[in-house]
Amino acid sequence: MQQTRGRFSSRLGFVLAAAGSAVGLGNIWGFPTQAASNGGAAFLLVYLALAFCLAYPVLMTELVIGRYARGNPITALTAVSSNALSRVLAPVIGGFGVVVASLILSFYCIVGGWMMSHFLAELFGLLGMTGVAVWLETFSLSRSLLFTALFMLLTIRIISQGVESGIERWSTRLMPLLLTMLVLLTLYVITMDGAMEGLRVYLIPDFSIALSPSLIIKALGSAFFSLSLGVGTMLIYGSYIDDSESLPKLGTQVTIIDISIAVLAGFLILPAMYVALHNGVEIFSENGSLISEDTLIFTVLPALFDKIGLAGGVVGTFFFMLMSIAALTSSISMLEVPVATAVEKSSLQRNVASYAVGGAILLVSITIIMNFEQLFGAVIAFTTRYSQPLLGMLICIYVAWVWNRGEVLQQLQKGSPDIETSTFWRIWPAYIKYVCPLVILIIFVQSF
Ligand code: TRP
To answer: Is-contact 425 419, C-beta < 8 A?
Structure first.
C-alpha cells in the first residue's frame, strides 16, 4: 500500500506544487482587490499578521498529520484519534473537508474558465479576429458552460497522471513561467502614466477600515483561502513528502512564496487600475468606492488593454495567461483531495477516479452556472468564509488536543533532528493548542 502511493520526487517539486496550490486567483485577484477597497497597506498588514500568526501554524498541522498518516483527510484524522469520540468524529470532519474542497473546485472552475476565455479573446483580438474575440469576452451562458468544462478537463487530465508526472511535473513547469510573467507585467505597468496613484492607494494605510471585525474575518478567510487550508489539500500534499525533509522549513518556504506573490500582485493590479483611470476607464462605482472584484478584472482591465492598442493586446494576452496558469495549479490541488480519497477508500484506478469525481464536480459547476445569482456567492461564502476557518480550527484541535504529543514531535524530528530545541517547537505546540483555535473561534463568532 505504502509503495503504491505517489511521492514528490524532490524538495523543489513539493515546494513548487504546494506554492502552485497556494498561489492562485486568491493572490493575484482576491488579495489586491480587497486591499484596494479596504484600507490599502493597513489591510496588507492585517493580512500579513494573520498569515504568519494563524495560517502558517495551521499549515504546519496539516503537513505533520498528512506525512504521518500518509493518507487522505479521513484516514489521517482517524489515525491520530486517541479516544472513542475523536474516532467517531474523524470521518465526519475529514469527509466534510473533502466535500468543501470539491465545492471550492466547483466555483473555482467557473472563474478559471473565464480567465481562459479572456486569454483566448485577447489572443484572437491580436490576430485581428474581432468577431470571435468579442464572443469570447462577452458574458454568456454558452461561454461559461464551454470554458468551465474545458478548464475542468485540463484539471482532470493533470490529476489523472498522478503525483509525480501530473501535479509535480506541471507545477515545476508552470510556476517559473507564472513568476516571470508577473514580474515582467508589473515592471511594464508600473512605468505607465497614472501608476503612481495606484501605488499610493496600495501603500498608504487607512486603519479606520482595516481594523473592523468584518474586515478581519475577511482577511482571515483570504489568508486561509490563499494557503489552501482546512480542506485537506495541504494535508494530502504533506502525505507525499519524503521523511528526510524538514516540515517547518518547507512550510515556511511555501508561506513566504504565497505571501510575496500576493504582495507583488498588488504592485500590478492597483497601478493597472489607476492607469486605466488615467486612460479614461471608469474605476469607481456609483457610491464612490473602487469597483470591486469581478468587474475590475473582466471590465476595467480589458478596457485598459483595448485602449493601449497593440501593446495592450500583448499585455492582455499575458495577463490572462498568467491568471489561467495560477488558477490551474490551484485547481489541481483541489481535485486531488476527493480523487486521492476515492482511490484510497475504494479499488478505483486513479484515472477512472479522476474522471468520475471531476465529472461529478462539473455537474455541480453547471448547476451553479444555471442558478448563478442564487448559488455563486452563496457557495463561495459557505466554503471560504465559514467552512475553511472552522475546519482549520478542528485540525488544530486534533493535532494539539487529540493526538499524542510525543508522536507529533517524532514526526517533526524526521528531517529536522534538532527540532526539540528549536524556537518552533518552543512556540508552536502551545500556539496551536490555545491561540489558534481561540482566535479563529472569536473571529468566527464575531462575523455573525
Ligand atoms: N490558494 C488558492 C488561491 O489562492 C486556492 C486554493 C487551492 C484553495 N487549493 C485550495 C483554496 C484548497 C481552498 C482550499 O487561489
So the answer is: yes
Coil, strand or helix: which one is 388?
Answer: helix
| Residue found under cell 493533470 | 158
Q: pTM for this one?
A: 0.94
Q: What is the mean pLDDT of each run of 10 residues along the chain (448 residues)?
A: 74 95 92 84 88 92 97 97 96 98 97 96 93 93 97 98 95 95 94 92 82 77 89 96 96 95 93 88 77 73 81 90 95 98 94 98 98 94 89 96 95 96 95 92 78
Nearest in space to 33 (alpha carbons), one of 377, 265, 281, 197? 265
> How many residues does the structure list for the chain?
448
Q: How far is the CA of 26 from the centre of ligand 1 (A)?
A: 7
Q: How far is the CA of 122 from the centre of ligand 1 (A)?
A: 26
Q: Is residue 233 in contact with ligand 1, taking CB distance under 6 Å?
A: yes
User: In the numeric block, which cell numbers belong to residue 388?
Assistant: 475553511
Q: Is 230 helix (H, G, I), strand (E, B) or coil?
A: coil
| Cell 506544487 -> residue | 17
Q: Are 62 and 436 in contact (CB under 8 A)?
A: no
Ligand 1 in reach of 354 Cβ (< 6 A): no
Q: If you measure from the C-alpha of residue 108 to the centroid of ligand 1, how many angstroms do you get, rounded to a whole number?
A: 9
